[in-house]
UniProtKB/TrEMBL annotation:
Residues 1-18 form the signal peptide. Keywords: Signal. It comes from the Bacteria. It comes from Tamilnaduibacter salinus. This is DUF547 domain-containing protein. Transmembrane segments: none annotated. Residues 75-186 form the DUF547 domain. It holds the Pfam family DUF547. InterPro entries: DUF547.
Amino acid sequence: MRRLLFALGMIASVAASGASFDHQHKPWDALVERHVTWVSDHTASVVDYAGFREDRPTLNQYLASLSQVSESQYQSWGPDQQLAFLINAYNAFTVKLILSEYPQLDSIKDLGGLFTSPWDKAFFELRGQQRTLDELEHEMIRVEFNEPRIHMAVNCASVGCPALADEAYVAGRLDSQLDAAVRAFLSDASRNRYAPDTNTFAVSSIFDWYGEDWNEASGYPNGVRGFLWQYRSAFETPPTDQSDTLNATLRFLDYDWALNDNDQS
């Protein structure tokens, strides 16, 4: 009987902790609303890292709430709650990493070394273990979800990245938020464009690095080209023929690793 009562108590505890987590991510929502600004006709954003530095106590409290979520608590959530949690965690911990050396850096790559990467630093705890940003993106988000649109939602603190959104990702609006992130990114002709005269897409290197994520299991049996056709209306000059699009040449543009700072430090 004692064992039964103990087990029931543990279940109740996990349920209570799960219910207490703020799936609206209100602290992060307030932070990005205050410190992220859309630019270039709402196709890119810049970040007020100096402002984030002033609000570091609030940021740290939010990060602590993420770190307190156990694996069992995380597994008790629905898929959209899980994915929103991981996207927000990636973006928020990336800001924390930038602040560790800000303003003495011009790029997130400055936080690495000759043989180390900033994405390989184990500097935070998530789901009960010390983690790196690479683990969060490649071993959690990409492995647990067949959702290539996440590449337009996770932000690497660089000009070449898709925009850091000025709102938190939340389960109830996740699909529409990911859709908006894709459309904003593809609308930026400096990073993604289509040339009808040569039937060529000049697109972000993201589509080269992670092209395998656009596959039949994720809903894109025609790969990256099928994805670009689906979102064709986002392009400044959109393709008009599906057959041509699915046979188009893909050219991958150089990636700009400069810090996406608004220079208000």
